[in-house]
Amino acid sequence: MENSLQIVCFNVPYPPNYGGAIDVFFKIKALHELGARIRLHCFTYGQYQPRKELEKYCNSIYYYERSGDILKHFSTLPFIVVSRKSRKLLDNLAADPAPILFEGLHTTAYIDDEALRNHVKFVRMHNMESAYYKKLSKWEQNLLIRAYLQTESSRLANYEERIYYSDATILTISKFDQMYFSTQHRGHTVLVPPFHPFSKVETLPGKGDYIFIHADFSIADNKAWVEKLLVDTSGELGMPFRLAGKNADQLNLKKCPEVQNIQIESNVSQSRMFELIQNAHATVVQAFNSEGFKLKLLYSLFIGRHCIANEMIMKGTDLGHLCHMANSPAEVVQKVKELKNVGITADDIFARGKTMDERFSNLKNAQIILDLASGQTESEHEHEHK
What are phi and psi of 73, to 5 degrees? Predict the structure, then answer.
């Protein structure tokens, strides 16, 4: 039982090619490295199917099919929750006395079930889901999808109360989220920063010859801000733009004044993404909301050179001293011009490495979870609790 943990994941967290899956997969990997015995429960659907890679890090894996029943959209529960109800999951969780980590609100349908009354429980909050869905709806052009996002946001707002009155410990992902959830949840909230692919800072010294943007462009707000930035700035930077990410080929660049000076790579491999970030002169990372933690910021700081970020993406990160702030296209242009001939030095890399290791060590943060699971945290992490 010691160092044993059950993890319930909203889908199959491999390959780790977007925020939620990245946090879960590298968390599992770090917990395994610390000697944890992991019993993983995953929901399958669409592209998320059983993966042998996970067997390297988990002692056992159980797969459950997520329901696609359209009638579940009419439930009072959020669709992301009700579509992941499985009696088989509940029975398997109840059969093992090990603590349970529910990854996201999505997996918490049984959090207050009598069968799990004696289990130690945690909920990893990747986001303030109701607020996140509401903001997504404002950027969505498809009216049907927008209606779904708005309805789901309302249902999530009601459902979140259920978590706040549960006996689970909430594991928050950023200081911004920690401040919010600690005022809402009647129990403990503990800050556990996001997990990621890096063991150390691997920034290259010197300069690059292009500006880089990486994001999931299937998300409406990412697509919106990038299109606006490119339209407003691409004729002024004096350096070429490169973009890469999920569905990057769907960006509308017809209005860009220098579209020939913009290179796009869609759905690239992780190794190619790392190469593009590492060789850029600067990465531009922005967001229109402050909920959760945008992992593209960590990628830029662990392997990129200059990082140009806006206030929204920086909230609750305490990483402002490592970034250059720019909240508008005009400010981005100004920062690029200021940094064009400024290289990264060995001293810059050392200072960045010290900060990132202190705050974002996967092993240190995985140990927080294991300490919580074993009840050895009252003194070590009391400052993180409500």
Answer: -70, -15
| Measured distance CA(88)–CA(71) in Å, rounded | 21
Q: Average pLDDT in the 281-288 region?
A: 91
Task: With CA atoms as reference, report the closest residue to 153 among 131, 183, 184.
Answer: 131
Between CA 73 and CA 62 the distance in angstroms is 25
Backbone angles phi, psi at 163, to 5 degrees: -70, -40
pTM: 0.92
CB count within 10 Å of CB 164 equals 15
How far is the CA of 322 from the CAs of 3, 54, 67, 243, in angstroms? Answer: 35, 34, 44, 22
- Would you say the CATH fold of 211-343 matches that of 4-197+361-381? yes
In the chain, where the domains are located: 4-197+361-381, 211-343
Band of residue 160 on the pLDDT scale cut at 50, 70, 90: very high
Residue with tokens 């059950």: 6
Quote the CA–CA distance of 68 and 83 in Å, as a whole number: 7
pLDDT band at 291 (very low <50, low <70, confident <90, very high): confident
Distance CA 116, CA 320 (A): 42
Q: Provide the sign of the torsion angle of the four alpha carbons 24, 25, 27, 32, taken in this order.
A: positive
Looking at residue 376, its pLDDT comes to: 63
Closest-CA residue to 291 (of 163, 161, 126): 126
Measuring CA to CA, which residue among 24, 22, 32 is closest to residue 8? 24
Q: What is the CATH number of domain 4-197+361-381?
A: 3.40.50.2000
The CATH architecture assigned to 211-343 reads: 3-Layer(aba) Sandwich (3.40)
